[in-house]
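[stage:ingest] chain + small molecule (guanosine-5'-triphosphate)
[stage:ingest] validated
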Amino acid sequence: MNKKVTVGQKILSANEKYALENKRILAEEKKLCLNMISSPGSGKTTILTRTITDLKGKLNIGVIEGDVQTDLDAERIRATQAPAVQIETNGSCHLSAAQVNNALSKLPVSELDLVIIENVGNLVCPSAFELGENAKVAVLSVAEGDDKPIKYPSIFSKSKVMLISKIDLLYAVDFDIERAQNDALKLNKDIKIFPVSAKSGEGMENWYDWLCESVKSVKG
Ligand SMILES: Nc1nc2c(ncn2[C@@H]2O[C@H](COP(=O)(O)OP(=O)(O)OP(=O)(O)O)[C@@H](O)[C@H]2O)c(=O)[nH]1
Ligand SMILES: [Mg+2]
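[stage:predict] done
[stage:export] tokens:
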């Protein structure tokens, strides 16, 4: 007679195993790790280069760059003197935890205060793959439209922070900040929302304060 045995333990996917391993490495070193997710071109790398430059002497930031092709973004980060590792996914629309595990081994993690992962530009796929981060940061530029939180709810539901970027362009586009904020808060009542412009610098201080506080709370 065939017996059915129920195993009361979740079988982890390869991605989940690597994500747990990344979490363990980062927790052991007491480093904050953020996973930045958005559509292509919302301004992720520009926000990172300005953040690294403005927080020089306050926070040491290392970056893992994910792109389908090229190491252009890692080069932009290295131009600020911060360490960066480029992952080219060669077609995949998101980073995997295994790729991040490999990139972490190439970063001087012990010398950093935080690691920021810039995921492949895509508002859908990256939200489904944990990388071992402490928090996801969604970026939505005003040029993309204020309906994006309700059209692509997964990433806004799972993120701790939403940066509304390129607010210097508000004069040129019909983007209702209040609507985008309210829709994101309906999906995720705890999400912190910071309207910013990496070009003019407007609003960036609020993002920096959140970063410094979060680094402090992970260091304990
Ligand atoms: N006006 C304005 N333009 C910006 C701002 N931030 C970025 N940009 C421009 O937006 C374009 C895309 O910026 P990136 O920083 O490369 O965007 P990204 O999200 O890293 O792009 P991918 O990595 O390709 O997904 C560039 O031409 C930037 O100069 C901003 O705050 N204001
Ligand atoms: Mg980029």
